[in-house]
Write a structure and sequence with these properties.
This protein is an alpha/beta fold. Helix content is 40%, strand content 19%. It contains twelve helices and ten strands. An eight-stranded mixed beta sheet has the order 1-2-4-3-5-6-9-10, sandwiched between helices. Strands 7-8 form a two-stranded antiparallel ribbon. It is globular. 47% of the residues are buried.
């Protein structure tokens, strides 16, 4: 099992980026982890336990999230990618990168803008263009719920936990470890608690994912095959998945791993999902992904 992480900070252009670092065993490579659009570094805690020291795992809080909440904008995939490269340089890179959701686009952009920094990628339920069709509309509904969640003032931690406990994506319940990681999202404010995520950052980034052609075409332009772990279900915990069958077929040259029975959240936050992602990462680190 992994130890509890240490809090670390990295200098970036006009500010600092907070991160969690789980040390690896002697001689293991470095893996930089990039969370989803309305998440933070604690999302990678389950993966750290399943990697069990197989890599030094450095999970970033992107600008406007977590311990980087007050690091100024502008926001966006390009800015985050430059931050990733700056962090890797301070880690004596190059490094591997893993991204979840929007973090997959950040990982791809980092490899595109800073190819000397990123050795290889694992994308978790992200990286393909966000759909404008029926499936995409459901995903936008889920994003709207995320915005409402981070704008709300929660009177206490119990009410925030209750919201997640009744979320359709977590029909099997919330483990004590996941409960701890979810509650780590909260900061105390007048009237209660709020999530340490900037609504402005989320709105900006969502617009970029939907409208920016360079961001949307990153996977098309990435020359080398990458590993993509796809959840069977979307953020609502049901069909359609975030990455449709047609998108998987469009990018057939990449290495696909199917997260059967998992949704966009549990593909990373559940024991079975984190184990699947950890196995995919181990294959990439060993150079045996095919």
């Amino acid at each position: 099992m992994a130890t509890r992480p240490e809090f670390v900070d990295f200098d970036v252009d006009d500010g600092r980026i907070g991160a969690l670092r789980w040390p690896g065993l002697l001689g293991t490579p470095t893996l930089v982890a990039i969370h989803a659009i309305a998440s933070n570094a604690w999302a990678w805690d389950p993966l750290a336990h399943h990697l069990a020291g197989g890599a030094q795992l450095v999970a970033l809080d992107l600008r406007g999230r977590g311990r980087s909440l007050d690091t100024p904008g502008p926001y966006g995939v390009r800015r985050y990618a430059d931050d990733v490269a700056a962090v890797i340089a301070q880690l004596d890179g190059p490094a591997y990168a893993v991204g979840h959701g929007m973090g997959s686009f950040v990982a791809l952009m980092a490899a595109d803008r800073h190819p000397q920094a990123v050795r290889d990628l694992v994308l978790v339920d992200g990286g393909t263009p966000v759909a404008h069709t029926t499936g995409g509309a459901r995903d936008l509904d889920a994003l709207g719920a995320d915005v409402r969640r981070i704008e709300a003032i929660w009177p206490d931690r119990v009410s925030y936990h209750a919201m997640w406990a009744t979320h359709p994506a977590f029909g099997d319940g919330i483990s004590p470890d996941l409960e701890r990681n979810l509650l780590a999202e909260l900061i105390e404010v007048d009237g209660g608690f709020r999530v340490a995520v900037s609504p402005d950052a989320v709105r900006h980034d969502a617009t970029e994912l939907l409208t920016d052609d360079e961001v949307r075409s990153l996977l098309d332009r990435h020359a080398a095959p990458v590993t993509i772990v796809r959840a069977e279900f979307g953020p609502s915990g049901s069909h359609p998945p975030l990455i449709t069958d047609s998108e998987r077929d469009r990018y057939a040259r990449h290495r696909w791993i199917e997260g059967i029975g998992l949704n966009h959240y549990t593909v990373l936050n559940s024991a079975s999902g984190a184990s699947l992602v950890a196995d995919a990462i181990r294959q990439v680190l060993a150079g045996t992904a095919s």
